[in-house]
Amino acid sequence: MSVEALPTPAQARPATGAAQPAGPAFPPGFLWGAATAAYQIEGAASEGGRSPSIWDTFSRTPGKVRNGDTGDIAADHYHRYRDDVALMSELGLGAYRFSLAWPRIQPAGEGPANGEGLDFYDRLVDELLAHGITPVATLYHWDLPQTLEDRGGWTERDTAYRFAEYAALAARRLGDRIPAWTTLNEPWCSAFLGYGAGIHAPGRTDPAAALTAHHHLLLAHGLGTGALRAELPATAQVSLTLNLAAVRPLSEAPGDLDAARRIDGLANRIFLDPVFHGSYPADVLADTAEVTDWSFVRDGDLAEISRPIDSLGINYYTPTVVAADDPAAPAPRLDGHASSLSPWPADRGVRFLPAEGSRTAMDWPVDADGLYELLTRLRDDLPGVPLLVTENGAAYEDYSDPSGAVHDPERVAYLHGHLDAVRRAVADGAEVRGYFLWSLLDNFEWAYGYSKRFGIVHVDFASQRRTPKDSARWYAEVIRTGQLPAR
Question: What residue spans carry the region label Disordered (predicted)?
Answer without folding.
Answer: 1-21
